[in-house]
């Protein structure tokens, strides 16, 4: 059944040709108001949604017994890439020659790789980064027109600052947003497409909470920029890239397929938290984890928000109503028999997401770690939120 999801996921992706740096489509206006029509916007839908067979165990758990890895060979049909180093970004880029999913994967040490099943990773770019503390290459997103221009964006820590780079295959990475403050901590940043033509950038506070509250600083913010690094059209404040303030050490950004809900995960001093992105200062979190499981990447399904955890194995999922309110407590899945500790996450469709593992950074790695894999969305539930 997992294999069928992998093949279906690949069927909805189109590989694009190479191009140089064309102008990207102008981003549409920022909107934080949900539109509660049954079909509020586009979503990456597959031909034939995955449905579990009668009596099949809950989704999100591996459904079949597979042999353990042997070296870099992993026999799980959902694994796309193996023997990587602390995966910090994943993005589907099309279908491979066998009809499976091809993807980009970013490593914290500075490599951007093209990965396909049973094929050695291909280095797209190597960026010099400062991976001390919590920095390095920590975020990845694709352009809104990737199929035509093949452009990718990464968030990196350098010797002097944090910045966003634009990467085209075979070309030198180009900085488009520089001067994001660097500190002894709080350097991690993450990226996401807002599904409207703009790029979302969540930045750390550089170890200084005052910078997160300072509207003139790029630290501790959710930013919205265009493909050249300028403030995107339609931002809450014209001419400013800042959408929200008050982050400490963001770990993941995800946007719903209808573009109406944007979420960011963050590590605070007292808890891991999840915020819904709104203009201005981020308020009380939509959810908090005082036990600090290390929430990082996320997927915003129509009726569920799922986050990856990097300090404990697996996923945590919250049932969600159409307005974005949660109707249950987080339900864990894949804590046993899964892929271990997870970092970046990118929704493929309403049935599955692409994930990267971070087992080499403190987990219990198997011989094929770290890996990129497809995980089927969990069944999740729970009662009413307290």
Summarize the structure.
The protein is mainly beta. The protein has helices at 2-11, 146-149, 209-213, and strands at residues 79-81, 87-95, 101-107, 111-116, 119-126, 137-142, 152-157, 162-167, 174-180, 190-193, 199-202, 221-225, 242-245, 250-255, 262-267, 272-276, 280-281, 287-289, 295-300, 304-309, 315-319, 331-333, 342-347, 352-357, 372-376.
- With strands numbered from the N-terminus, the spatial order across the biggest sheet is 10-11-12-13-17
The topology string of helices and strands comes to HEEEEEEHEEEEEHEEEEEEEEEEEEEE
Class by SSE composition: mainly beta
| Tally of strands | 25
Oligomer: single chain
Describe the structure in your own words.
By secondary structure, the chain is mostly beta strands. It is built from 3 helices and 25 strands. Residues 10-23, 33-63 and 380-386 have low confidence and may be disordered.
Outline the fold blueprint.
Layout lengths: L1 H10 L67 E3 L5 E9 L5 E7 L3 E6 L2 E8 L10 E6 L3 H4 L2 E6 L4 E6 L6 E7 L9 E4 L5 E4 L6 H5 L7 E5 L16 E4 L4 E6 L6 E6 L4 E5 L3 E2 L5 E3 L5 E6 L3 E6 L5 E5 L11 E3 L8 E6 L4 E6 L14 E5 L10
Parallel strand pairs: 13-17
Antiparallel strand pairs: 1-25, 2-3, 3-4, 4-5, 6-7, 7-8, 8-9, 10-11, 11-12, 12-13, 14-15, 15-16, 16-18, 19-20, 20-21, 21-22, 23-24, 24-25
């Amino acid at each position: 059944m997992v294999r069928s999801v992998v093949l279906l996921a690949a069927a909805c992706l189109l590989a694009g040709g190479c191009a140089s740096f064309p102008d990207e489509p102008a981003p549409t206006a920022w909107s934080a108001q949900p539109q509660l029509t049954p079909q509020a916007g586009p979503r990456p839908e597959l031909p034939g949604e995955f449905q579990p067979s009668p009596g099949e165990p809950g989704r999100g758990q591996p459904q079949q017994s597979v042999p353990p890895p042997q070296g870099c060979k992993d026999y799980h049909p959902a694994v796309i890439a193996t023997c990587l180093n602390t995966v910090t970004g994943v993005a589907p880029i099309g279908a491979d020659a066998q009809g499976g999913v091809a993807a980009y994967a970013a490593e914290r040490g500075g490599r951007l790789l093209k990965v396909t099943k049973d094929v050695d990773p291909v280095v797209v770019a190597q960026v010099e980064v400062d991976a001390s503390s919590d920095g390095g290459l920590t975020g990845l997103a694709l352009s809104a027109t990737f199929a035509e221009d093949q452009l990718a964006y990464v968030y990196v820590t350098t010797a002097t600052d944090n910045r966003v780079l634009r990467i085209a295959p075979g070309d030198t990475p180009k900085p488009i947003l520089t001067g994001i403050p660097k500190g002894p901590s709080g350097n991690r940043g993450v990226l996401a497409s807002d599904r409207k033509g703009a790029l979302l950038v969540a930045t750390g506070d550089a170890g200084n909470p005052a910078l997160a509250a300072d509207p003139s600083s790029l630290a501790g913010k959710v930013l919205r920029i265009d493909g050249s690094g300028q403030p995107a059209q339609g931002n809450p404040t014209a001419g400013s890239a800042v959408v929200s303030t008050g982050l400490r050490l963001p770990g993941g950004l995800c946007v719903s397929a209808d573009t109406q809900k944007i979420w960011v995960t963050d590590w605070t001093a007292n808890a891991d938290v999840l915020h819904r992105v709104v203009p201005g200062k981020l308020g009380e979190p939509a959810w908090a984890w005082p036990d600090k499981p290390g929430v990082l990447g996320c997927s915003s399904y129509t009726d569920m928000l799922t986050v990856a955890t990097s300090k404990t194995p697996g996923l945590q999922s919250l049932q969600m109503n159409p307005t974005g309110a949660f109707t249950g407590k987080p339900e864990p899945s894949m804590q046993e028999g899964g892929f271990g500790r997870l970092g970046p996450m990118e929704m493929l469709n309403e049935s599955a997401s692409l994930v990267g593992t971070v087992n080499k950074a403190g987990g219990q790695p198997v011989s094929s770690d770290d890996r990129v894999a497809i995980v089927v969305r969990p069944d999740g539930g729970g009662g009413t939120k307290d």
